[in-house]
Amino acid sequence: MSLVQGETIVAIATAIVPQQGSVGIVRLSGERALSIARILFKGAGKQEWSSHRILYGYIRHPLTKQTVDEALLLLMLRPRSFTREDVVEFHCHGGIIAVQEVLQLCIAEGARLAQPGEFTQRAFLNGRIDLTQAESIAELVAAQSQAASQIALAGLQGKLASPIRDLRATCLDILAEVEARIDFADDLPPLDEKEIKQQLTGTLTQVEAILATAEQGELLRSGLKVAIVGCPNVGKSSLLNAWSRSDRAIVTDLPGTTRDVIESTLVVGGIPIKVLDTAGIRETIDAVEKIGVERSRDAAEAADLILLTIDASVGWTIADQKIYQQVKHQPLILIVNKTDLIAPQSINYPPEIKQVVHTSAAKNEGIDDLELAILASVAQKKILATNSEVAVNQRQASALTRAKIALQQVQETITNQLPLDFWTIDLRGAIQALGEITGEEVTESVLDRIFSRFCIGK
Questions:
Q1: Do residues 206 and 163 touch, judged by C-beta distance below 8 A?
Q2: pTM of the entire predicted model
Q3: Which of 18, 197, 221, 255 has the fewest other C-beta atoms within 10 Å?
Q4: Nearest 5°: phi and psi at 234?
């Protein structure tokens, strides 16, 4: 993203939905933000145009003088604004027409339509926030659970950046000590190798501890994809409806009712769960059902966890065994459904299946046990073993991995008693990798990639 210093940008900062939303916000940032506001906004009575005040009035077309909307005007003058530039917000009536008209008037007066994430990128480039905080803003907007929201808020408050900066500062101090001995060996006492080793060990331990939060972060941000699979008419759709407390899926006594993959998003133990109700897997000559069966197999293959559902009143069948053979290589929970019709103890399923849950979707029974089994399956991977307040994303984890490798190589260099010049190479690598996390050392292409994922107006 190529930014021109001094350009004034504008964007709609709220979701715009026809006939919905009481307020729509048009946001301006840059040198001409205030002057454009003075051209378009006519305040009621005598109101002071000063920073961090809200004015009431009307937005008018500068040529026709026609009133476009009754609105509030929020003034946030530099440097006390999100971007550290003059920021102006028109708080209009919601909907489509009013905010679009105001946006076009701002553009006509010289503002440029903002690119995705450009307001946040300006905040970063102007030193208002670091790169971890910028990423946390996007993660907060996209959070699908309270746990993900809390992780994002912790990052926004600098709880990830602070330890990363401390680790980088330690590496810089070690590098300064080493380089001083290279340049002024005769004027300084010998390097305290034992102290350096201790500092490196402590730094490496902290890097590994932060890196260990990556899987948790990925789970909380992206969620867990769970596929309900099984033969037709075993109650997969009824299970989804009972679990989601809705009628997302059509339920009948006829096998093969579900012809496509139906999605429902739930939150279990703070983890977003995308539940896929799949078509019953069986051999069929029906062309439409055959497509549904193929999609079911694809959904099962892509899932993080399989809920293999069988009918308690029928028991474990040859058809169930065939499906099991297709999915047994994946994490799996066996759901014995319709237990209100027959005692589940009579079901003979493969002994290697360790997690079994008994449910009666028709009576909403066993759902709590199902959620506990899912959380237990997640815990087995030790994804949620950490109680860390922060969780790194994929980009940050990649940089931490490079920092970890560099620090390990420094340790190896010391152990092999190589010259001090060799120490500095990997120390600089660790410093650069840690700096990439907070944005102290980052390329324009990386910034473009990060901020292009933001919505326009953020």
A1: yes
A2: 0.77
A3: 18
A4: -95, 0
> Predicted confidence band at 88 (pLDDT cuts at 50, 70, 90)?
very high
Whether the CA torsion 253, 257, 261, 264 is positive or negative: it is negative
The amino acid occupying position 300 is: A
Give the integer Cα–Cα distance in Å for 240 and 247. Answer: 8
Nearest of 110, 148, 105, 157 to residue 129 by alpha carbon: 157
Q: Which residue has the tokens 């079901």?
A: 347
Question: How far is residue 40's CA from residue 160's CA, in Å, rounded to a whole number?
Answer: 42
The maximal CA–CA distance of the chain, rounded, in angstroms, is: 90
DSSP structure class, residue 344 = G
Structure tokens at 137: 């803003």
| Phi and psi at residue 71, to the nearest 5° | -155, 170
Q: Does position 252 have pLDDT exceeding 50, yes or no?
A: no
Convert the pLDDT of each residue in 195-251 to its tens digit.
999 999 999 999 999 998 888 788 878 778 888 888 888 888 888 888 887 554 433
The CA distance from 286 to 282, in Å, is 11
Neighbours of 366 (CB within 10 A): 23
Query: Residue 451 in contact with residue 3, Cβ under 8 Å?
Result: no
Q: Of 371, 395, 368, which is closest to residue 271 (Cα–Cα)?
A: 371
CA distance readout (Å), 60 to 30, 87, 179, 386 = 21, 19, 64, 55
**Which H or E run includes 256?**
none
- Hey, which residues does 334 pair with through a beta bridge? 308, 356
Question: What is the side-by-side strand order in the sheet with 41-43?
Answer: 41-43, 53-60, 67-76, 87-93, 23-29, 9-12, 112-113
Please, is 37 exposed, middle or buried when counting C-beta atoms within 10 Å of its C-beta (0-12, 13-18, 19+)?
Answer: buried
Q: Which helix (H) or strand (E) holds 113?
A: strand 112-113
116 φ/ψ sector (left φ>0, alpha ψ -120 to 50, else beta): beta
Q: By the 8 A CB rule, do 41 and 155 touch? A: no
